[in-house]
Specification:
The chain contains 7 helices and 13 strands. By secondary structure, the protein is α+β, with helices and mostly antiparallel strands. The chain folds into 2 domains: 95 residues, no CATH class; 137 residues, Pseudouridine synthase, CATH 3.30.2350. The strands form 3 sheets. Strands 1, 2, 3, 4, 7, 10, 11, 12 and 13 form a 9-stranded mixed sheet that branches. The chain has a two-stranded antiparallel ribbon with strand order 5-6. It has a two-stranded antiparallel sheet with strand order 8-9. The chain is globular, with a radius of gyration of 20 Å.
């Protein structure tokens, strides 16, 4: 695949796209280009992968590796710290811990009684190293089965907690009238923001789920430098490549 440059593309994943959708779209663009400049064998076809899955409802930075050398290095990005902007809906819970699941109202009247000072105290209690149990609705595999596949069948199994670290949580806004809480979260790899949202709601005593989620940073890489996958063309994809 001599005509294809290797490297990484910083993509801004659109809402309702899976991370795999982004990879498949970019792979299609690259194959369109390479078919025009050289004859490809089946083994030569563009190898494309991503570092760190984003849920379909989420948006933000997704690092996409192009070529064998780049995809081999994707694990180096997966372990980097991440930054997210999350909007939590208070006064309700979700079985998926986000807006895509079954929503159950859980005493909205309690939200208005939670002072901002208490919210700040509770947020502060989540900062530091801790154990976090992965949600059932996740792509994590246990005994070869993806958890979400079991969850969709109504099966819940015991999950071992993961060691994570929340480096910082910054309160952007708290609106007890509309039942919304917006946060900037800086955390270690492996942190489920949906689970964090659920746990914050539990501590607040009113319930919560993640309504909006954007990943803004992976290590030193920012969504500000990322492109909309739909804007990538066969002619310009090479110009977007970085070497990491």
């Amino acid at each position: 695949m001599s005509s294809m440059n290797h490297g990484f593309i910083l993509a801004d994943k659109p809402k309702d796209w899976t991370s795999h959708d982004v990879v498949a779209y970019i792979r299609g663009i690259i194959r369109e280009y390479t078919k025009k400049v050289e004859q490809l064998t089946e083994n030569d076809k563009a190898k494309v992968g991503h570092a760190g899955t984003l849920d379909p409802f989420a948006t933000g930075l997704l690092i996409v590796g192009i070529g064998r050398e780049a995809t081999k290095k994707l694990d180096e990005f997966k372990i980097l710290p991440k930054t997210y902007i999350a909007t939590l809906k208070l006064g309700a819970t979700s079985d998926t811990y986000d807006k895509t699941g079954k929503i159950v109202e859980s005493g909205k009247w309690e939200v208005g009684r939670v002072a901002e000072k208490k919210v700040q105290q509770i947020l502060k209690s989540f900062v530091g190293k801790q154990k976090q149990i992965p949600p059932m609705f996740s792509a994590k595999k246990i005994n070869g089965k993806k958890l979400y596949e079991l969850a969709r069948k109504g099966i819940e199994i015991e999950r071992q907690p993961n060691e994570i670290e929340i480096y910082n949580i910054e309160l952007i806004s708290y609106n007890p009238i509309t039942y919304h809480l917006s946060l900037i979260i800086n955390c270690s790899s492996g942190t489920y923001i949906r689970t964090l949202a659920h746990d914050i709601g539990h501590k607040l005593g009113c319930g919560a789920y993640c309504e909006e989620l954007e990943r803004t940073k992976i290590g030193k890489y920012s969504v500000k430098d990322a492109c909309d996958p739909k804007s990538i063309t066969a002619k310009k994809y090479k110009d977007l490549l970085i070497q990491g």
